[in-house]
Amino acid sequence: MSSQDIPEENLPAEQGAAHDAAHGGTTAVAQRHDDPFADPGLPAHRPRIQDIDERAAKRSERAVAFMFTLSMLATIGFIAAFVIFPVDKIVFIWPLGHISALNFSLGVTLGLALFCIGAGAVHWARTLMSDVEVADDRHAIEAEPEVKAKVLADFADGARESAIGRRKLIRNTMFGALAMVPLSGVVLLRELGPLPEDKLRKTLWAKGKQLINMNTNEPLRPEDVSVGSLTFVMPEGLKESDHNFNTEIAKAAVMIVRLQPEDIKDKRELEWSHEGIVAYSKICTHVGCPISLYEQQTHHVLCPCHQSTFDLSDGARVIFGPAGHPLPQLRIGVNAEGNLEALGDFEEPVGPAFWERG
């Protein structure tokens, strides 16, 4: 249906004119005909009960303070839950069924703490902060001195209208709730796991521990290692059936290579070897990938992940790739039984450069 098919008295303009005429608004009618997009202005402000009754304002203030206080108590409950409930405790809660008591208590207390802060802020804004609408004209984007002064004045007006200076109970409980909520994050970070202490600096290698061939699970003898061969070994006492095998082998995996003694350029490497047999960490010093590629002619080992290349004839120094430092060397010797053994642990942490090597 087009506008021509609508009776004139039902058109929006005619309806507005009839309404204004009934209320004596002849000037508004004339203005509307002259400018159909004229600013209608803001509606009259209707005060809330808190604006005219201080007792109602006090009730709202106490309600907001109660929610902030409840948030603080919930945060304390969140922290207490870590102490009270063991990780493996299971409880039955209808209708959820059997669930972890720790997870349930953490979720309820943290959710309540955050909800009460939000609910308190909303109730504060709706009942106590000023709700007078203000129209502001558009202005240039650049911040002129007058604009800066206006912003500061508006900020001061907002602070005054929020009554944060006058409503001290709300202010103090809000600051308390906001200050205590981050404690939940501190507790969560602490419970991510035990502190590493010096575990990253030590491996299972120790003086007297034999080198066990990872293929045969037997002690390795010097005559078992031929020139140009690559053998992987692990510390004596570590078994693949151990629950911590993956954790320990990730630090203690060692590769054995036999070189001609005259091909070894690094003096310390020669002293720490046995008859040209050198032992180096298998863990790349870039991001911890296992090194498994060996070039017999050049005595280079290559990490397959990012192509870091180390020269085993020259202290395993980095000659190519993103690795930042050489592979740690394990000092070895031979025990009374003729088996290869470690003469101590690595002198520096194996793997990537954690914390800039400490």
Write the layout of secondary structure elements.
Blueprint: H1 12-22, H2 26-34, H3 49-52, H4 54-84, E1 90-93, E2 97-100, H5 101-127, H6 145-161, H7 168-180, H8 182-190, E3 211-213, E4 230-235, H9 245-252, E5 254-258, H10 267-272, E6 277-281, E7 293-295, E8 300-302, E9 309-311, E10 317-320, E11 329-330, E12 332-334, E13 340-342
Helix pairs in contact: 1-2, 4-5, 4-7
Transmembrane segments: 64-87, 99-122, 169-189
Biased composition (Low complexity): 16-30
Organism: Streptomyces pristinaespiralis (strain ATCC 25486 / DSM 40338 / CBS 914.69 / JCM 4507 / KCC S-0507 / NBRC 13074 / NRRL 2958 / 5647)
Question: What does it look like?
Answer:
Helices cover 38% and strands 13% of the residues. The protein has 358 residues and is of the alpha+beta class. The protein has 3 domains: 3-34, no CATH class; 49-131 and 166-190; 199-357, Rieske [2Fe-2S] iron-sulphur domain (Rieske Iron-sulfur Protein). The strands form 4 sheets. It has a 5-stranded antiparallel beta sheet. Strands 7-8-9-10 form a 4-stranded antiparallel beta sheet, with no helix packed on it. The chain has a two-stranded antiparallel sheet with strand order 1-2. Helix 1 packs antiparallel against helix 2 and helix 4 (54-84) packs antiparallel against helix 5.
Identify the notable features of this structure and list them briefly.
358 residues, alpha+beta, Rieske Iron-sulfur Protein, 3 domains, 10 helices, 13 strands, disordered N terminus
